[in-house]
Amino acid sequence: MKRKNGTGTRPDKHKSSSLPVEKNVEYEAEIVGINHDGEGVGRVNGFTLFVAGALPGERVLLKVVHTKKQYGYGKLLRIIEASPERVKPDCGIYEQCGGCQLQHLSYEAQLKVKRQQVVDNLERIGKLRVFREDLVQEQGQDKSQGQGIIVHPTLGMNDPWRYRNKAQVPFGEEEGGLIGGFYAQGSHRIIDMEKCLIQHEANDDVVAEVKKIGKQLGISAYREETHQGLLRHVVVKVGFRTGEIMVVLITNGTRIPHEREWVEGIRAAVPGVKSICHNVNTKQTNVIFGDVTRVLWGSEVIYDYIGEIKFAISPRSFFQVNPVQTDLLYGKALEYAALTGGETVVDAYCGIGTISLFLAQRAGQVYGVEIVEEAIADARKNAELNGITNVHFEAGLAEVVLPAWKSQGVKPDVIVVDPPRKGCELSLLETILELQPRRVVYVSCNASTLARDLRVLENGGYRTVEVQPVDMFPHTTHIESVCSLIYKGFE
Ligand SMILES: C[S@@+](CC[C@H](N)C(=O)[O-])C[C@H]1O[C@@H](n2cnc3c(N)ncnc32)[C@H](O)[C@@H]1O
């Protein structure tokens, strides 16, 4: 690579280090890939540099801003040759806000990148063989010959905007008064926003109204550094199918001054609002909600559906944020479970029981386990709300409760796992191997821990059949996948 225009200030800390690049020096680089943070992966003299804003296939001018032994970071100065997949971001504050990372890449290309990242993780971390359609076509082979795991194209959204049903917006202050928006990448600096294109429109209306009322009433915003000021966050939840809206004002103080003005203003500005709540959080913490919530106006909960199952959503209860794609994801999980009506199914890491209730429609008996007690209480309420009686929910660690069920004689035909980003505990995977259910369905929000855990299950006698990436969060780097495994003895 050609070195361009050194800044003149020879960086003495890194002087003639053994690295092939120098800090504060400009280089031209080829961008050869994209990492899991959405940064372009560039090569300069064989050295890897991560460059925010650069895309695969591009040639860019960058300045090296930070180096480590194996890699470094470059600041994008100029795009010399742009990728044909580069698009103009629709959002006016995309560059400053940390909410989205991929708006400068066409949506079709985002879906391809996400699938490729799943494939790369399965191959590199899981040491798994992925079926390569291109090779099969070239070599005239047939899919049925078991050429490896089928990783399907990512299931994307027809309209990948305005898909989030929940927003948690922090407030701050500038000279003109209250500001509200999302944090800048890697910081707690609030970027004031008028609209967020991945949130439901009701969120824009609520944030604008809260700023307006707050300014009129002289309400102060909470400041993290000093722990002073009143208004911390507003949380907006929307039932996509029902149209019901909940607004929760979170304050650093037990009272909201001028309650009536708040309620009247929000009701007038946001048609469809069914519930306005106040949550008190006086702790010096990053956690959004405090322990006390009361209803200022309307109902305690709103409702929404995933598939045919109805869910009650309260201020603090968890609910998947993209209901359209959740329907697809759980539909796939149900398909991979291949239930015929009489099976015993375990849903480990069940949250509020969403997948359990989906599965219960086609299973004999479902057992759900989840660490958060409140979520289990919601799961039980949701089962009751839908008249579903063939589910049993238990609060506890999945890796503790599953062996207990085993010793009580529970013999699952199918086990579904939907763990957090860190994946499954090894001991849970070991219990699955002892129980030997016919099928395992793995729902994952982290392709690297998915690949690690699939390797354990493969070593224990399972075969990974197919993986379906589902785009739950367009324009961000998040990847969700659902994966089907079968025990080799049952094939
Ligand atoms: C990715 S979420 C899945 C939620 C649920 N399946 C859904 O779709 O709504 C992972 C869940 O695992 C729970 N969890 C984390 N560690 C756990 C553990 N060791 N045992 C049981 N549940 C756990 C979290 O509280 C969270 O609800």
UniProtKB/TrEMBL annotation:
Keywords: Methyltransferase, S-adenosyl-L-methionine, Transferase. Residues 1-20 are annotated as: Disordered. Residues 20-78 form the TRAM domain. The active site is at C445. GO terms for biological process: methylation. PROSITE patterns: SAM_MT_RNA_M5U (PS51687), TRAM (PS50926), TRMA_1 (PS01230), TRMA_2 (PS01231). Gene3D superfamilies: 2.40.50.1070, Nucleic acid-binding proteins, Vaccinia Virus protein VP39. CDD domains: AdoMet_MTases. Pfam families: TRAM, tRNA_U5-meth_tr. The keyword Cell inner membrane does not apply. Signal peptide: none annotated. Its EC number is 2.1.1.190. It comes from the Bacteria. InterPro entries: MeTrfase_TrmA_AS, MeTrfase_TrmA_CS, NA-bd_OB-fold, SAM-dependent_MTases_sf, TRAM_dom, U5_MeTrfase_fam. S-adenosyl-L-methionine binds at Q320, Y349, E370, D418. PANTHER family: RNA M5U METHYLTRANSFERASE (PTHR11061), TRNA (URACIL(54)-C(5))-METHYLTRANSFERASE (PTHR11061:SF30). This is 23S rRNA (Uracil1939-C5)-methyltransferase.
